[in-house]
Amino acid sequence: MTTRTRRKIPLLRVALNTYGTIFLLFLYAPLLLLLVYSFNSNTINMAIWSGFTFDWYRSLLGLTTNLGSDAFYLESTDELLASVKNSLIVASN
To answer: Over the stretch 57-84, which tens digit does the pLDDT of each residue have?
Structure first.
């Protein structure tokens, strides 16, 4: 091995590790943001944080919540569960 080749290998490894880290952040950052904002209590604009709540998950399970009627974009939990089922079917194919 020449001296030049020995210098390229660590540089290539650093570049590959950097690329891999950026790639994984690009994939998982939106999922983490969705998870964080799923606990937001703002019923109109979900991008503006107004407090922490489990009400969205309670409504999904059919439990009582403090959410107003303007917070529901789907007519029922059955429609939401049907859409989740369809998404899982498409994702598995």
So the answer is: 887 777 777 766 555 555 566 777 888 8
Beta carbons within 8 Å of 83's beta carbon, 6+ residues apart: 74
44 Cβ contact list (under 8 Å, min separation 6): 70
Give 18-77 as a 3 state SS string.
HHHHHHHHHHHHHHHHHHHHCCECCCCCCCCCCCECCHHHHHHCCCCCCCCHHHCCCCCH
Contact 67, 40 (CB under 8 A): no
Q: What angle do CA 6, 21, 12 make, to 5 degrees?
A: 15
Instruction: Note if the pTM is more than 0.85.
Output: no
- The span from the CA of 6 to the CA of 9, in Å, is 6
Q: Record the tokens describing residue 44, joined without a space.
A: 């109109």
